[in-house]
Design a protein that fits this description.
about 350 residues; OB fold (Dihydrolipoamide Acetyltransferase, E2P); 2 domains; six-stranded mixed β-sheet; 21 strands; about 35% strand; binds adenosine-5'-triphosphate; OB_MalK-like; transport
Length: about 350
């Protein structure tokens, strides 16, 4: 059992930079949790505290039901993979992978057996005799992963392990890593600022901002129901659209005015009558027509971007812009009129002051 429990974990640097602020998060045994957030939001600091490389100035950390807050890294039963490959160039792949096991003074035959198994898992078996200086970046990163998993830790911590690889290699290695971690069945925490990586890999994603976890949930849940407009604009490519509108009318006949158009609004917006709200809608949840559709939002195409599998349109509604996705055979043309129908159950409503979701649908 290696559940990880973070209870009010806080870290301040130089008495003023609150890098991690009161984080409350439980990572279930064998779960793959991704910490996602923009640069400087505190992901690495939080990870380093879980590893024992940084000491929290508030809160407790428990691994497998044991309070490890005051324990040094070597007594936490964790293994880490960092962004830089951190493999020894003067050692062979075999010796690199075996390094930690040798430090434990494990018997030779046992070391060989474990190293070979780890090498098979990361597909490095043919390279065991090579020096790591003779490997490609992707292969070196595999060595780093193998060196961590060979220790059979209860917790595997990975900090941006793919970020030094080129785009294509990242894509291949991402899927391999996902398969590997599923086979290992080890509790894993993975730090990244790449939202695609987070969505693709995690059983759950914890989105961080300014030292705090602002939302956690399955990738699809976080994508579909961002708890704040920050999460909606951070996750997804393109980011979620946000349109300003004013709440009009009253219960029973509540509407949100977007320029000339009035959209039916959910009852939960009644408390915001007379005020501005943000309508969040994703590019793939807007239907477009080039001929007049009654009750649709009238817009104008500004930019058409063919992206192979679909078109990405930038459209103008009143004085606001939004992005939408259409099929490649859609008759899109710059400056042409458009009629837009957002899918009603995909509408998300946010308070522009707090950025919190107020209602969905
Ligand atoms: P990145 O994706 O760029 O690595 P991050 O989300 O991992 O960012 P951290 O490295 O955890 O962010 O940093 C969080 C904040 O703490 C930043 O403002 C950073 O400047 C500050 N910080 C981190 N380490 C130290 C340190 N040793 N001394 C002082 N400030 C630090």
């Amino acid at each position: 059992m290696a559940e990880i429990r973070l209870d009010g974990v806080t870290k301040t640097f130089d008495r003023k930079v609150r890098a991690v602020d009161d984080v409350q998060l439980t990572i279930a045994d064998r779960e793959f949790m991704v910490l996602l957030g923009p640069s400087g939001c505190g992901k690495t600091t939080l990870m380093r505290m879980i590893a024992g490389l940084e000491y929290p100035d508030g809160g407790r950390i428990a691994i497998g039901g044991r309070d490890v807050t005051d324990l040094p890294p070597r007594r936490r039963d964790i293994a880490m993979v960092f962004q830089s490959y951190a493999v020894f160039p003067h050692l062979t792949v075999f010796e690199n992978i075996a390094f930690g096991l040798r430090m434990r003074k494990m018997a030779k035959a046992e070391v060989a057996r474990k190293v070979e198994r780890a090498a098979v898992l990361v597909q490095l078996e043919p390279y065991l005799g090579r020096y790591s200086a003779q490997l490609s970046g992707g292969q070196r990163q595999r060595v780093a992963v193998a060196r961590a998993i060979v220790m059979e830790p209860s917790v595997l911590l990975m900090d941006e392990p793919l970020s030094n690889l080129d785009a294509l290699l990242r894509l291949t290695f991402r899927a391999e890593l996902k398969k590997l971690v599923a086979e290992l069945n080890t509790t894993t925490i993975y730090v990244t600022h790449d939202q695609i990586e987070a969505l693709s890999l995690g059983d759950r994603v914890a989105v961080m901002r300014e030292g705090r976890v602002v939302q956690h949930g399955t990738p699809m849940a976080v994508y579909d129901r961002p708890a704040t407009s920050f999460v909606g604009s951070f996750i997804g490519s393109p980011p979620m659209n946000f349109l300003r509108g004013r709440v009009e009318g009253q219960n029973g006949d509540l509407r949100v005015r977007l320029g000339e158009h009035a959209l039916a609004a959910p009852a939960a917006l009644a408390g915001h009558a007379g005020r501005e709200v943000l309508l969040g809608i994703r590019a793939e949840n807007i239907e477009a027509e080039t001929t007049v559709v009654p009750d649709a939002i009238s817009a104008r195409t500004e930019v058409v971007e063919p992206l192979g599998s679909h078109l990405l349109l930038t459209a103008v509604v009143g004085d606001q812009r939004l992005k939408l996705q259409t099929r490649t055979d859609f008759p899109a043309a710059p400056d042409a009129p458009l009629w837009l129908r957002p899918e009603p159950d995909k509408l998300r409503w946010y308070d522009p002051e707090t950025s919190q979701e107020i209602a969905a649908g």
